[in-house]
Amino acid sequence: MSPPSFDRVVLITGAGSGIGAALARRLAAPRTALMLHARGADTASRERLAAVGAECSAHGADCATVHGDLAERGAAEHLVHTTLAHFGALDQLVANAGHAQRQTLGTLDPDTFNEAFAAMPGAFAALVKRASAALETSPRGRIVAISSFVAHRYRADAPFAATAAVKAAVESLARTAAAELAPHGVTVNCVAPGYTRKDRGPSADNAAVWTHAAAATPLGRVAEPADVAALIAFLLSDEARHITGQVIHIDGGLTLG
């Protein structure tokens, strides 16, 4: 349970950009404590996370940051330990860190496959295992994991062999966690975005990529990170207390067919 000074303590992985950063901004408010994570592989990554933290602090949240490569053994547990040590509690966990890789099954190499599993379902399982005791004592215990449409839409012209597998694994683990934590009032859900605009990376400024993605989406546009953040924020809210074990698609109709 959160200390009296906070209404809730939230750990968000992958908070330096995109959906994670948008969620942090949306949740930032007085009496909210945010532990924001990014891999922190270089100076630019650390600076981006610091900027998100500063913005959230300006909106009244109590923010701290932590870095770590979730593919490394012990990194996920370290994030939870750091949150508990810094804020004295953990009420809500958002497992957002991850990346998509276009690869066919025929070109998939074992190292890439193993690293993807370690960084996403492996890290998610470790986060939940380490955080469960704290979440079980919270009146607002919530877990949200970010999946992807690629675990539900398979096309030879848009192959995501490793990413589809690891996101499907995350969804399965989330359902297991939902069943195990339900007696303690903790909800566990997945959000599966469709094409979502990026604010960094090779495709961020490639207009042709986003035009193609919008054309492939029945609603005719791609999601903004804030669109996905709004759904996650709802699942963290008291209004969503009776929703658990679900995979909720926010993809503009991409997985209709």
Automatic annotation (TrEMBL):
Keywords: Oxidoreductase. GO terms for molecular function: oxidoreductase activity. SUPFAM superfamilies: NAD(P)-binding Rossmann-fold domains (SSF51735). It comes from the Bacteria. InterPro entries: KR_dom (IPR057326), NAD(P)-bd_dom_sf (IPR036291), SDR_fam (IPR002347). Gene3D superfamilies: NAD(P)-binding Rossmann-like Domain. Residues 8-213 form the Ketoreductase domain. Belongs to the short-chain dehydrogenases/reductases (SDR) family. This is NAD(P)-dependent dehydrogenase, short-chain alcohol dehydrogenase family. It comes from Paraburkholderia phenazinium.
